[in-house]
Amino acid sequence: MADEDKVVAAGVEAALKPFAELLERIAGPAAEEFGLTLKDHVRVFRFKRRLRLLEQLKKMVAGSRIEPSHVPFNVLLPIIENASIEESDQLQDKWAAMLATAAIQRGVHPSFPEILKQLNESDVLYLDATYEYETGKKQLDTDRTSQPRQRKRHYEELDDDLVLKVAKAMGMSLADADEARKKVRFSPARAGFAENVIRLGLMRPVKDLGDRLTGFGTRFVKACRAPVLNNDRTG
């Protein structure tokens, strides 16, 4: 039996121990087989999730048109292990993007897998929304071709888009957009919502709407986004 199988079997046995007598009564000779079936379910789940990870990785690498290369084992192993037990497709896509980023040598810090492991769906939605806002704002700040009125409208659209995305990340209903905007801008719960990403050093609190990415946070978010085309390395 492989080491991984032994760990799974031991875990299943420990989990079922408090129910041993009950299982013996209701399953009789089949009680042991019941435990083995659970172990098989775990193995099948991990296998299916790894297949999905590889499918997403293949798509991302192909889409970047960049040849993949060796990924350091201290980055590869935690990505594979964590992605194989991730139930959320949205979060697993982040693991796939991180692996794709590492495979095309765009730089994945060894701490990134541990950080991603501590994020939930709301965290990554918030990080992505802020990254897209800051990237869009930088582009507008350097835009010298648009008319002032047009640029002002684009700034307002960026702000509005950020507010609605943050509202979604906070689990608010977007049925009433105006109410969602009001809650995001003035809710006392805003500071607590961003607490985890600030704790991890990905964002810093600011006085205006929301929070802003740190330099480290920007590198992390970029590592968790599908690599861009080889002829467009701007984002």
Number of helices: 12
Shape: globular
Q: Could you name the ranges where pLDDT drops below 50 across 5 or more consecutive residues? A: none
Number of domains: 2
Q: What structural class results from the helix and strand content?
A: mainly alpha
The Cα radius of gyration reads 23 Å
Find the count of extended strands (DSSP E, 2+ residues).
2
In terms of quaternary structure, the protein is: single chain
Describe it.
- The chain is mainly alpha-helical.
- The chain folds into 2 domains: 3-108, no CATH class; 118-223, no CATH class.
- The protein contains 12 helices and 2 strands, in the order H-H-H-H-H-H-H-H-H-H-H-E-E-H.
- The protein has helices at residues 3-16, 20-27, 31-64, 73-83, 89-103, 112-117, 121-141, 148-169, 177-186, 190-193, 195-199, 215-223, and strands spanning 203-205, 211-213.
- Strands 1-2 form a two-stranded antiparallel ribbon.
- The longest helix is centred in the N-terminal third of the chain and has 34 residues, at 31-64.
- The model has no long low-confidence stretch (mean pLDDT 79).
Write out key terms for the chains shown.
235 residues, globular, 12 helices, mainly alpha, single chain, two-stranded antiparallel sheet, 2 domains
